[in-house]
Amino acid sequence: MRAFVAVLSSTALVALFTSSLAAQPPGCCDSAGVPQVPTVVIGEPITYDVAYRNLQIAELQSRLADGVDYPLRLRQLDTEIKLADAELQSLRRINANYSKFNRVSNDGGPLLLEREQFKLDLLRAELRLKNLRDERFLLNRHLSEQRRLHQLLVQRARQQVEASTPTQAKESVIIVGPANGRVANRPHMP
User: Fold this and answer.
1) 29 within 8 A of 36, measured Cβ to Cβ
2) Taking a C-beta distance cutoff of 8 angstroms, is the pair 150, 61 a contact?
């Protein structure tokens, strides 16, 4: 009976833990897609460890945005633009061939439905190419604002670290782990 209760309680704890992780995934963003630095809002002062972790998260988000997210999205857009442009050129060549063979009948020839579908495909390809180029332009246009946002998030996290650092230990904090007895020296981040 005890083993059953232990298994049941550990299963309940695992379910509770995984549901809380699913509710707040790491690196979550607000409704505008802006990455948020997680903070503790309990009414108590923020601890140094939490502030230092927030600083590390903000710095990593900034590095990932500049080094991974932006170049990756730019490459994806460039690839999609090249494909859309090639598709559009192909459709224009097909249109030139259609117009050569369908000059006689414009009011219901054997290729009318196919020709109308083709015109819609051509328009769809033109609009897709225009939208991709506009998206790439906006991505480049607002790059400096994105970088500034990440800088401000890092700055806010640094201020939290400074505010939570004890006054007598402003230069460095030494943490001794109880389990392994190792000393971790964390330099103060200005």
Assistant:
1) yes
2) yes
Can you give the pLDDT at residue 81? 95
Distance CA 84, CA 107 (A): 31
Q: Is 2 contained in some domain?
A: no
Domain that holds residue 47: 29-187
Question: How far apart are the C-alpha atoms of 129 and 133, rounded to whole Å?
Answer: 6
Residue 61, domain member (yes or no): yes
Residue 153 CA: distances (Å) to CA of 26, 34, 61, 150, 184: 16, 10, 9, 5, 26
Q: What is the pTM (predicted TM-score) of this model?
A: 0.54
Q: Contacts for 150-155 with beta carbons within 8 Å, 24 or more apart?
A: 150/35, 150/58, 150/61, 150/62, 150/65, 150/66, 151/62, 153/35, 153/37, 153/58, 153/61, 153/62, 154/55, 154/58, 154/59, 154/62
- Number of domains within the chain: 1
Q: Which CATH number does the domain housing residue 109 bear? A: 1.10.287
Q: What is the pLDDT of residues 84-141, one digit of tens each?
A: 999 999 988 888 887 666 665 556 666 777 878 888 999 999 999 999 999 999 999 9
- What's the CA dihedral at 141, 143, 145, 147 to 10 degrees? -170
